[in-house]
Amino acid sequence: MESNNYYPWVWTREKVVIVGSIAFLILSLLDGVLTLWGLGQGAIEEVNPVMQWLIEKSPIAFMAVKLSLPVILSFVIWRIRNRSRKFVACSLGLVLIVYSVVMVLHVYWIVFYE
């Protein structure tokens, strides 16, 4: 593998996985916090029945599961980063797109909730 010492703007696969995983974790944390806040305000409903059940049992359990999922997926992606490049790129890209759309929905109901 070629060194990036002369091209610091070129991202290595490892750097992409790390930054993508951190972004995924932050988006998941924001989603969890905003979901709990929106539920408390009566502005939204949780559409995932498993997460709704967890929220009803314990918001702490909900957040623990919410944050464990990106950690587990990031670990799996890190382990296979050199074996399945397309899967890694597609997986990270897909979760970041999905969570970005979820953030847009959160912003929408925060702005337009009366």
Structure description:
It contains four helices and no strands. The termini are far apart. With 114 residues, the protein is mostly helical. The chain has helices at 13-41, 49-57, 59-80, 85-112.
Topology:
Layout lengths: L12 H29 L7 H9 L1 H22 L4 H28 L2
Helix pairs in contact: 1-3, 1-4, 2-3
Report the sheet-strand fraction: under 5%
- Oligomerization state: single chain
Summarize the main sheet.
none
Q: How many helical elements? A: 4
Radius of gyration: 17 Å
Number of strands: 0
How many domains is the backbone divided into?
Answer: 1
Bin the helical content.
over 70%
Q: Structural class, from secondary structure content?
A: mainly alpha
Order of helices and strands: HHHH
Shape: elongated
- What is the rounded distance between the termini? 55 Å
Overall mean confidence score, pLDDT? 87
Q: Low-confidence parts, pLDDT < 50 over ≥5 residues?
A: none
